[in-house]
Amino acid sequence: MAALKARLMDGPAVNRALSRIAHEILEKNGGCENVCLVGIRRRGEPLARRIADKMAEIEGREVPVGVLDITLYRDDLSPAGENDAPRLHETRVPFSIEGKRVVLVDDVLFTGRTARAAIEALFQMGRPAQIQLAILVDRGHRELPIRADFVGKNVPTSRSEMIAVRVPEIDGDTAVEIWNL
Fold first, then answer.
1. Which of 5, 103, 105, 109 is the 20 to 30 A CA-CA neighbour of 56?
2. Per residue in 127-145, pLDDT tens?
3. Which residues, including other chains, have CB under 8 Å from residue 34's CB and lie 6 or more apart?
4. Is residue 75 part of a domain?
5. Which residues contact 92 (CB under 8 A, 6 or more apart)?
6. How far separated are the first and last CA of the chain, in Å rounded?
7. Share of residues in the chain with pLDDT > 90 (%)
8. Which H/E stretch holds residue 103?
9. Cα dist. 19→13, 26, 53, 70, 150 in Å?
10. Cβ contacts of residue 161 below 8 Å, gap of 6+?
11. Residue 103 in contact with residue 36, Cβ under 8 Å?
C-alpha cells in the first residue's frame, strides 16, 4: 500500500517553478518567435498551458500549445490482446511543427522512455528545428540518454518511491508529492 512520504511543493511553489521555466524557455530561445509547446498527455498538457500563459504575459503574444498522446509509441507496454488494447486519447497539435522549436512538457522525468516516445511521435508530424524538454520534476534513474533542458525541481528518489504531480484540471489541486510504494 502506498503511503504519502512528503509534500515537496505546494501550489505557490509549483507556480514559481513554472514561471521560472517560462522565463528560461524565453531566454534560451530569444523570445517566443518560432516556439511552440506540446504537453505530453496527461499532466503535461495542463502544465504546458500554464507555461504558455506565463510566456504570453511576459512577451505579450500567444504561444501555440498542443497535446500529444504517446500510447502507441511506448516500448514498455506488453503486446495487447483483443480485450486489453491500450486506450488511445486524442493528439491535438493544431499547428505545423516543421522548422519550429518544440518544447515538450511533462510532469516527471524518470527513465526517459516517455520523452523518447514523445520525440518519436513528434517526428511522425514533421521535422522541427529543435526539440527541447521541460519537466516539472526530475527524479533521476535514467535508462536512456535523455536530459531535460528546463527543470522545475530535481528530486533524488529511490526506486521504491513515486513522485505524484497534482494539477487542478485532473486532481482538484496543485502539488508535488513523494510516496513510498
1. 109
2. 999 999 999 999 999 999 9
3. 99, 100, 101, 129
4. no
5. 66, 67
6. 6
7. 88
8. strand 101-109
9. 10, 11, 10, 26, 11
10. 5, 178, 179, 180, 181
11. yes
- Cα 45 versus chain centre, distance: 7
Residue 179: pLDDT band by 50, 70, 90 thresholds?
very high
In a domain, 122, yes or no: yes
Domain containing 54: what range?
A: 3-70+103-180
Judge whether 144 and 113 are in contact, CB under 8 Å. Answer: yes
- Give the closest residue to 157 by CA, choosing from 172, 169, 175, 142: 142
Q: Domain containing 38 — which CATH number?
A: 3.40.50.2020
CA–CA separation, 63 and 80 (whole Å): 37
Strand partners, 37: 65, 103
**Contact between 36 and 65 (Cβ < 8 Å):** yes
Residue at 94 is within a domain: no
In a domain, 89, yes or no: no
- Select from 25, 77, 75 the least CA-distant residue to 48: 25
Strands 3-9 and 175-180: what pairing?
antiparallel
Residues 6+ apart with CB under 8 A from 154: 137, 138, 140
Number of domains in the chain: 1
- Total number of residues shown for the chain: 181
Q: Please say whether the beta carbons of 81 and 89 come within 8 A.
A: no
Tell me: pLDDT of 147 over 90.
yes
